[in-house]
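[job 4471] stage=fold_predict status=RUNNING
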Amino acid sequence: MSSTFGNIFRVTTFGESHCKGVGAVVDGCPPGLELSEADIQAQLDRRRPGQSAVSTERKEKDQVVIQSGTENGKTLGTPISLFVPNEDQRPGDYSEMANIPRPSHADYTYQMKYGIRSSSGGGRSSARETIGRVCGGAIAEKILREAFNVEIVSWVSSVSHIDSRQPDLLSLNRREVDRNIIRCPDQASADRMIELIKKTKEEKDSLGGTVSCVCRNVPVGLGEPIFQKLEALLAQAMLSIPASKGFEIGSGFEGTRMKGSEHNDPFIKKGERLGTKTNNSGGVQGGISNGEPVFFKVAFKPPATIGQQQQTTDFEGNETTLEAKGRHDPCIVARAVPIVESMAALVLADCLMRQRTR
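[job 4471] inference complete, writing structure tokens
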């Protein structure tokens, strides 16, 4: 099922960009967990459109409603249905583009695969689909927090050619990340990023960037050897996010420039357990979490929908000029921060439940 993620803790997302609403069905959540809309809404507020000058102008409240799976504020162990209405719908913005596959978008591939597609706003390929992921991820995160006090924090680490300084991975929190609209804790770099995004938006163009993430207090033993390695599951989760183009964990590609004597993480005693002196492994060894912070980075391409005129062809092969209408982000990394956190939580919660079956 292409719209379902997870094995034991499963999330199925539904809805298109301009239908009546979007959401998710969460299956496998343990009974007795205290859960209300407030537990989910905070992350949806961080993801929603129209929240700053560096995001799309589309205005959505993105208020979630728990339709089933709870009673008196506690989960029942049955499927949890979560629904968010689409209020600021403008499918008419896309009528002129119905017969033109937008460059680097999913219009052509969806049409060829299914023989039909939602031509308004990208349908299932739209970032609106990620609302369901954030809903499910918020529940997963609460399970992880109550079980092991797991903390998951993401931040914008680059926009285009502007890189930020790496923060303290052991102390960084979401309050620090959210101090500016680009969600970069390095304020000097954030100012430069914001200025560049605003300039690019005026030019009707778009920019890419990276989002980094650290997961603290992850217990030892999550992930499976060989094909279900923790880093492989995280990579699949992150590369399923719209516009994602790359994933690296720990030292990542920079590790290829190091010698083994530099890259190895020596073991040391940390309280009652063994730990590592360095963390080039990114908290995962042999595909299994080792108790150190899990650290990774996700690359996002520039949004495909831009306001500039582009020379392309329609579905019949006739040359045409496309000037996209509608509302779109000039750079998605700030809004991708809670999505990355949510997908990380889904992976870790599913791995935790799988480990508990042993």
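[job 4471] summary: The mean pLDDT is 94.
[job 4471] exit 0
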